């Protein structure tokens, strides 16, 4: 239909959806702006933070070098003290002095060296040597029983591990020719006394002693 003679024209509403989308986005933007005032920091929020000047990166080159020199000096001093200071673990040696018939059985009684308050653990290690001249290697299983008493300031014995409790452990004696491997006899994880009296007995080495003849028995007391 031609409406030019009537003085008006008719247009299809092609932009109606675009206008609605623009209005919706505008309303969402206004809502987000209102909500953003509560979550975004305002000028008065960071006024105190901006008044504190960060000087982390304002160090001069000389100060930067001095910091590194001081760090490496402290590190080198700690390494030197660790190397030149007393060892962490100290070991003392005690020979077993018994009659010939008791060499394979004991009892072997020993008193530990003085333990400092910094000592935390104690090991007792045994090492045997024989008179065997053969080239054979041999492995002998036997029992080890240990009793431990703590010595107080009045020099009285306080039982810590009585012999009656039956503290027996199986150990294997591995030897080649005249030398035998070391074996752990006892270990204390908590030290409450300055001195300890330790008694060790062997069970089952009689036949081994008759065949190979135990020549020497040494105990090593190691403290950490």
TrEMBL record:
InterPro entries listed in its UniProt record: TMEM181, TMEM181_GOLD
Top-level taxonomic group: Eukaryota
Cited Pfam families: TMEM181_GOLD (PF21885)
Keyword Transit peptide: no
This protein's UniProt keywords: Membrane, Transmembrane, Transmembrane helix
Chain ranges passing through the membrane: 64-85
Domain TMEM181 GOLD: 106-221
Protein's UniProt name: Transmembrane protein 181
């Amino acid at each position: 239909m031609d409406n030019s003679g009537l003085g008006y024209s008719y247009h299809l509403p092609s932009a109606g959806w675009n206008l609605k989308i623009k209005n919706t986005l505008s309303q969402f933007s206004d809502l987000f702006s209102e909500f953003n005032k509560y979550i975004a920091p305002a000028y008065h929020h960071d006024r105190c933070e901006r008044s504190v000047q960060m000087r982390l990166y304002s160090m001069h080159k000389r100060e930067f070098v001095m910091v590194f020199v001081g760090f490496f000096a402290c590190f080198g001093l700690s390494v030197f003290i660790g190397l030149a200071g007393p060892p962490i673990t100290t070991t003392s040696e005690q020979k077993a002095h018994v009659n010939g018939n008791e060499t394979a059985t004991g009892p072997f009684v020993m008193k530990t060296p003085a333990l400092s308050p910094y000592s935390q653990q104690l090991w007792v290690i045994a090492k045997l040597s024989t008179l065997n001249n053969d080239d054979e290697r041999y492995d002998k299983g036997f029992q080890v029983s240990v009793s431990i008493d703590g010595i107080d300031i009045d020099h009285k014995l306080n039982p810590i591990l009585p012999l009656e409790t039956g503290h027996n452990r199986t150990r294997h004696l591995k030897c080649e020719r005249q030398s035998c491997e070391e074996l752990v006899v006892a270990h204390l994880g908590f030290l409450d006394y300055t001195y300890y009296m330790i008694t060790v007995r062997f069970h089952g080495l009689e036949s081994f002693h008759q065949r190979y003849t135990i020549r020497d028995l040494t105990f090593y007391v190691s403290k950490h």
